[in-house]
Amino acid sequence: MLQTTAESRSMRIASTLLLVVVLAAAAALRLHDLDRTSLWYDEAVSWSQSNGSLAALLASVATDNYPPLHNMILWLTIPVIGDSETALRLPSAVLGVVAVLLTYLIGKLLAGRITGLTAATLLTLSPFHIWYSTEARMYALLAACGLAFLLATLKVLRNPSALWLTLLAVSGALFLYSHVYALLAFASVGTVCAFLTVCDLVSRRPVRRSNALRACLAMGVSTIAFLPWLYLLAIRASSVAEAGFWIAFPDIPFLTSMVFGITGSLVLFWLLICLAAFAAVPATLPGQAQAPPSPASARVLAICFAYTFGPALLAYLYSLFVQPVLFDRYLIASWPGLLLLAAAGAERLSPRFAPAALVAGALVLTFPELRFSLTQKVRPDWRGITQAYLSERSPNDRLTLFKGFAAPALDYYLRAPDSFAIADTPEDIARRSSPSETGNDWLLVVHTNPQELEAAKQAFDAREDEPVARTFGWGASGLSLFRNQTDKTRGAAPKKDN
User: Fold this and answer.
1) Which of 115, 135, 196, 490 is an S-S bond match for 111, by CB 3.0 to 4.6 Å?
2) Whether residues 291 and 422 fall in one domain
3) What is the gyration radius of the CA atoms in the chain, in angstroms?
């Protein structure tokens, strides 16, 4: 008995030390070099919407396609730590580490410490999760809030208390306010909880003893708290449906690319799927008798499967029959769920060897993507193109941006009110590009196809076919900066600002 207790204490100490190492690695991978890439358009939108009053923030986000929680976090942190690239991305990096910790806690509840450590390590090393934990957007928040919601749901199903019921209601509301895709996971888990409640009633279990019903009631509180913003999202959904959306139809090439973007390896994806299935299917291995899951653990697995696969399935069906909405980064909350189920399957397969083999295999298979994400992967280089413009411009020069949706990114790096005009059509460029006697005309073209790029150049009537500067960006244009020099400035040395 004493020996067993000592061994148990040693295992707890060892697992705690391993968890500290995993969390330290997660922090190092997410906090290091946060300003390696410049902010891109979406991040600049987050900055722009969060850089004024709270009322202005809510009004601005209400006209967009997502809830306001991430912007509210930035609104609270900007006055304290500033709005540099690092400062804007820091909340996401911290939330990325929190997600790793929550993954461990869920894994421990699901199948024990080994499962928790395995899943947390896999998430720590995930290139997909690292990349979006270093972006000033809501994706790391979506994952962290989703895992908090999942943990609270599992706790209530296992052994409800007033504390966990409250945490479920709060985490559910935060999850819903993090991203519109949270609705899909919330609905999937809620449907399973409702089904379990019906099962309890059919089995004539007293209503007061139904943990699933308690979970449903707590989720009902979350839903009520989200109703005001749900109404705004419904209004936005109708306008988006009329205007169309930019996401491509989910055919096989699209799905293959999306799966690779999330997992970093198609081989790893199928390995995780097989292990997740093994976690749920009763089986007997040679020399190892395995009983079917208990009702309690079966319910936990059902919730985990709903949380993991429900959003992708619902988004895929919506994409098939309404309009495409399925995209890789929107599934970042589901990704840890797959890792948890696979880790549970690995421990069930071989507690001594399979979890370590899974981590080692995942690292080998995804190492190229991990190295690429940490050292080479870039976002549209607004910092570089703005520096090129500032180094070449003269005091009286005029800058036109084509197209206006990218204005927040240019605003962020220029930091000068009314420092550029917006042109949304080639005709707008032509009207703006009238000859000037005092300075040069500049045109910044972003995110265009070849036809739009050529039309913009013709409207600008650039004297040189090649841009003065070009940095990475999407579309045929990338971020391309053109200049028309006046007779007075042509041939003169450019004047640089101090």
Assistant:
1) 115
2) no
3) 26
Encode pLDDT of 165-191 as tens digits: 999 999 999 999 999 999 999 999 999
> Do 181 and 330 meet the contact criterion of CB atoms below 8 Å apart?
yes
What is the count of structural domains for the chain? 2
Q: What is the pTM of this model?
A: 0.92
Are 109 and 203 in the same domain?
yes
Domain that holds residue 330: 12-375
| Of 152, 167, 139, residue with least CA distance to 332 | 139
Whether the per-residue pLDDT at 410 is higher than 90: the answer is: yes
- Claim to verify: residue 368 and residue 395 sit in the same structural domain: no
In whole angstroms, give the CA distance from residue 387 to residue 144. 35
Structure letter (DSSP) for residue 183: H
Could you read off the pLDDT of 306-359 as tens digits, one per residue?
999 999 999 999 999 988 999 999 999 999 999 999 999 999 999 889 999 999
| DSSP element (H, E) containing 90 | helix 85-111
